[in-house]
Design goal:
With 431 residues, this protein is mainly α. The chain has 18 helices and 2 strands. The mean pLDDT is 93. The structure holds phenylalanine. The site of phenylalanine (PHE) has 15 residues, from helix 1, helix 2, helix 10 and helix 14.
Length: 431
């Protein structure tokens, strides 16, 4: 059967933005900025995106387009024994997807609660079995999309949801900036503390966040690249990266003005999205509507990211084992739900914990932080060192001095930074 292709460059860009823009932008980015030097954090963050995230994005797209297949078979075609590395990446994505769907379910539930005007307290919500229903619902939405194919499913979903997301975001920014706490909120969010830039922890946080947010190193862009035609890779990857940074920065402009308007603690860290912000919505005017819109936006972001993750193992089954798409999707969906179940149960009465850490938190650390970096290392080493230079040059438009700089970055810079981030993340631990 002929390989599916994106219907247009725009469709590919929207799907890639859908993958990149997720919970990481709207929930994680604002609180990480708050914790790591405010506006000054943008400096290491932009360096991370520009010099390390973007080159790796381009490399993934290049491997995918050049080999014309998904991660396991692409790696196998580079060297037989690298198929195992491809398998590791597929496993990491599936494991991340499991707990990501759990959080996507929480977001869906919150959108619904606010729309009904009845927000539930977070601890009461995740302590109940209600999240399981939303976990299943979100999983089904992801499954149905991927089952419908690259064009009819993934691309179509993003064509609808990404514009909706941007409109909602801009609307919320405008509203948040007119709230009484706006000036104070922005002061907290963006006032730069440059002294923090000498702290290596801030740099490690910036690199970790950049890789997570760009969805890079997971074989997603590699798989997406295998559906590409002759598009220029740098330009399109840059558009995706810019959109990703923009959404993250704008999300902070929504979150902090609202938190300050409600007089709440802006340094709530991971609790910001599900405890502080919902509390803020119950305080401010039109809070229920704003809350519903906010969580709807977050749901659109999370769903399109989850879809891109499910496509990786699905395409791998199709390409490596010749499964038809529908059967591959069903299998992978079932596996992801099973893998996510312990995370979905981690806060319920069953209290699934490992050594005192809730399973979901552990999964986020082991797979979403450490696993993600290891996967990124595999991509950069296999692609940078074992795919021939001429083959990469062919994909990125010639072999001039720019490409020499690029290759040096991919071969030395990116793996070095990933290694440092890996070691740094180990020492920071899961807490
Ligand atoms: N980039 C997504 C986000 O910001 C998350 C993600 C990570 C998606 C890794 C795919 C792979 O939420």
């Amino acid at each position: 059967m002929e390989r599916e292709q994106w219907s247009s460059t725009l469709g590919f860009i929207l799907a890639s933005i859908g993958s990149a823009v997720g919970i990481g932008n709207i929930w994680r980015f604002p609180y990480i900025v708050g914790e790591n030097g405010g506006g000054a954090f943008l400096i290491p963050y932009l360096i991370a995106v520009l010099f390390f995230g973007l080159p790796l994005m381009v490399l993934e797209l290049a491997i995918g387009r050049s080999t014309g297949t998904s991660v396991i078979s692409a790696f196998r075609s580079i060297r037989q024994r690298f198929a195992a590395a491809g398998l590791v990446i597929v496993a990491v994505v599936s494991l991340i997807l499991g707990y990501y769907i759990v959080i996507t379910g929480w977001v869906l539930a919150y959108a619904l609660f606010f729309a009904l005007g009845q927000p539930i307290e977070f601890d009461a919500f995740i302590g109940s079995y209600l999240p399981l229903a939303f976990f299943l619902l979100s999983g089904l939405a992801v499954y149905v999309t991927v089952r419908s194919g690259v064009r009819e499913g993934i691309e179509r979903l993003s064509r609808y949801l990404i514009p909706v997301l941007f409109v909602l975001l801009l609307l919320l920014v405008v509203i948040a900036l007119t709230e009484p706490g706006a000036a104070e909120g922005i002061g907290f969010y963006l006032s730069p503390d440059f002294s923090r830039l000498t702290d290596p922890g801030v740099w490690i946080a910036a690199f970790g966040q950049a890789f997570f947010s760009l969805s890079v190193g997971m074989g997603i862009l590699l798989t997406f690249g295998s559906y590409l035609g002759k598009e220029g890779l740098f330009r399109n990857a840059a558009i995706v990266a810019v959109a990703d940074v923009l959404v993250a920065v704008l999300a902070g402009l929504v979150v902090f003005p609202l938190v300050f308007t409600a007089g709440l603690d802006p340094a709530a860290g991971v609790n910001l999205a599900f405890i502080t912000l919902p509390a803020a919505f119950t305080e401010i005017q039109y809070g229920m509507v704003l809350g519903a819109l906010f969580f709807l936006m977050l749901f659109a972001a999370a769903l399109t990211s989850a879809v891109s993750m499910l496509e990786v193992p699905t395409a791998a089954l199709m390409d490596s084992y010749g499964y038809p798409r529908k059967r591959a999707t069903l299998l992978v969906f079932a596996a992801a739900m099973l893998l996510g179940l312990p995370s979905a149960l981690s806060y319920t009465a069953l209290n699934l914990e490992v050594l005192g850490t809730p399973f979901l938190d552990l999964a986020d650390y082991a797979f979403g932080t450490i696993g993600l970096i290891v996967a990124g290392l595999l991509v950069s080493v296999v692609g940078g060192w074992f795919m021939s230079r001429s083959r990469i040059c062919k994909e990125i438009g010639g072999c001039g001095w720019q490409q020499t700089v690029y290759m040096a970055l991919i071969r030395y810079g990116v793996p070095a930074v990933l290694l440092i981030t890996l070691v740094g993340s180990f020492f920071r631990g899961s807490g």
